[in-house]
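Appendix C reproduces, verbatim, an entry submitted by the partner laboratory led by Prof. M.T., so that reviewers can inspect both the input and the predicted structure.
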Amino acid sequence: METDFRSPNELLGVLRVIDEQICPPFKGQSNVVIDLFLFGFCNAQQGIGPFDRLATLKLSMQQTLSPTYNLGILWEPNEDFAWGMVYQSQAKMHMKGKFEVDYGQGVQDVFNAVGASPTGQILLAVLGLPNYVPKKEVGLISMDLVYPAHFQTGIKYKLLPATQINFDIGWTDYAQWDAFTFNFDRTTSVLQLARLLAPGTTTTSLSMPLGFQSPWSWSLGVEYSWNERLKLRAGFEPRNSAIPDSKRSTLVPINQAQLFGTGIGYQFDKDTEIDLTAMYLHSKDSIPANTSTNVNSTGLDHIVYNPYAGLDVKTEASVMMVGIAFRTLW
């Protein structure tokens, strides 16, 4: 994952006003009176504001082994009807990797200027903020992640000798993703900054609230047997979103979605068959201003992750997939 962070809220708006309206007469000056009232803030060459890049977070994590199990049942009393069910277990993973934080120039200038002022040092110490921000910080990172369980059941029924209809319903336990908590091996400046305003953040951990829910969805498919060897297939699935309206995000732009699929099955001989599939998924969403705490809320404490505070946001995603399956008996 690689993402830029900014924090468009009232606090950084005040800092921008100070930088643009109050500091210009005092730029380049440093004395006891100025430092006493402005804490060295005006000594920064570049200020920070609500729409400036504060930092860029890059992280890469993995787990090489994560065992799961699948349990399936199929009941087919005759050629015209069948019922099936499958349960795919969850996977608990402890992912490990590396992180890198690149800080914006304004963040470096402001905190280094305030940290160089005697009164600024006192202010930063009281707030628990760093008195120096480097250009870059790197280290190790980990997180506990549960890959959610999935359940699906459905029937097939032959309406006509050459036409079969399939109907399925499925459920995925995305409610396991209430939040993603990243654990760092050291205290970083970005965590010290976030700890002041973001609930649940500590000097060595960052929590990204998700609040996902576990949706049910249905799907419908039709198969037509052109002859004994060739089968034509088509399907449709309106997918319900696992993300509630109050947690919509640009990081996950797939919400309510429609999945369209087509396929061809060909029987080479009694033991060998091949399937070709092509699918298209489309999702389009509108997020009115101040409705999601993960993208456009105006709350002061909604800084992870809330880059478009007070703005209307629209997302759209299109995914095209192709697949091939080859099966043979021996």
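The longest strand covers residues 272-287. Additional entries are available on request from the coordinating office.
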